[in-house]
Backbone:
């Protein structure tokens, strides 16, 4: 009978770690993509930023959650980002802003 348990193995140099928890697998996959990803709660406040975003901003997750992510956005980009974010929250949809 085949093993239906899903897992991934993370290799860091000579060390490897197997992850079987689905939420940890998803978090590791999201952290490995070269795009900015974040999530927000129903109140619109951000609850998660992926590794690419944190590396780009030079912040820890804790700093980004406490300080809020908009303080580092270029003034010319801030209106588009906030309008897009507000619309996505209001419509419960996925949006993008360039």
Residues:
């Amino acid at each position: 009978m085949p093993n239906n348990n899903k897992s991934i193995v993370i290799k860091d140099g000579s060390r490897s770690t197997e992850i079987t928890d689905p939420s940890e697998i998803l978090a590791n996959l999201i952290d490995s993509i070269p795009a900015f990803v974040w999530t927000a709660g129903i109140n619109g406040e951000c609850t998660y930023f992926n590794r690419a975003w944190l590396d780009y901003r030079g912040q820890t997750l804790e700093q980004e959650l406490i300080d809020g992510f908009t303080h580092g956005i270029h003034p010319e980009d801030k209106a588009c980002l906030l309008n897009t974010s507000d619309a996505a929250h209001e419509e419960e949809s996925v949006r993008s802003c360039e």
Q: What stands out?
A: The chain has a mean pLDDT of 80. The first helix runs from residue 22 to 32. Strands lie at 8-12, 15-19, 38-40, 46-49. The helical segments are 22-32, 51-57, 61-67, 75-91.
